[in-house]
Amino acid sequence: MAAGELKKAALVGEIEAPVDERLVNATVTFIRKTLEETTRKGMLEVGAYLLKEFYDDNLEEVQSRNPKKRASVRRLGERCGTFELPVSKTWLNDALRLAMMTKALPATAAFKRLPQSHQVALLPLRKPERAETVAKRVVDRVVEKEFSVRELRGIVHDEVVKNKGDLGRPNKPRIVKALDHSIRVFTLEAGKRRSFTKAEVADLSEEQADQARAQAEKLTKTLKELIDALKKK
To answer: What would you measure as the largest C-alpha separation in the chain, in angstroms?
Structure first.
């Protein structure tokens, strides 16, 4: 048989060869399950490591203002998303918060019966007791695969909005509040929030203008120092 005919016969044989769909489907399921279990175990292990090595397994220490630890955590975050550390800062933060939640709750907690994807969806609630309250409401439906992560995120969002001061974004730091106030105070443009007008500036005497300029320059210098410090964060 000529070389061309052999090649054609081989191609036909490949096309007509039967596919074991059961084997393919079973393998896809196995790979997906293995990856999910590996990722789940890895995330919790990483979080537990961070909690132990950076915070001595002290949940309160995570919220502390210890500058040395904050500097080290920040440096670790800077290396996220690189070839040597191919995880995001969000993933790293979630790993730590997951470890904190797991450590804070008892072994019988409903939270611990949830798949990790649902546990992560509860992390925005921040406080273990809040997460556990929601987990108890949905755990049976989740176990029966009748409640998706998307649906749980909707509940979490509603809880955050309802308890914004307690569960949502943390209260603004004093420095941010002070800057917000300053912006309102020194607004010259037309609008409800302006504190003084350009006309008032024009009405200043030469001496008054010199005094105001000196104070403004002093304020500008202070703000520049603040900006430089914030850039180093």
So the answer is: 107
3-class DSSP assignment, residue 36: helix
d(CA 49, CA 57): 9
> DSSP assignment of 193-207, as one string?
T-SS-HHHHHTS-HH
**What confidence category does residue 6 fall into, taking pLDDT thresholds of 50, 70 and 90?**
low
Q: Report residue 51's pLDDT band, with 50, 70 and 90 as the boundaries.
A: very high
Amino acid at 223: L
Helix residue ranges, H only, 56-196? 59-62, 67-78, 89-104, 116-122, 128-143, 149-162, 164-167, 174-185
Give this prediction's pTM. Answer: 0.57
Query: pLDDT by residue (tens digit) across 161-196?
Result: 877 654 445 556 777 777 777 776 666 555 444 556
Q: Are 26 and 72 in contact (CB under 8 A)?
A: no
154-158: long-range pairs with CB below 8 Å, 24+ = 156/121, 156/122, 156/124, 156/125
Check if the beta carbon of residue 112 is closer than 8 Å to that of residue 105: yes
Q: What's the Cα-to-Cα distance from 110 to each of 38, 64, 102, 130, rounded to whole Å?
A: 22, 28, 11, 12
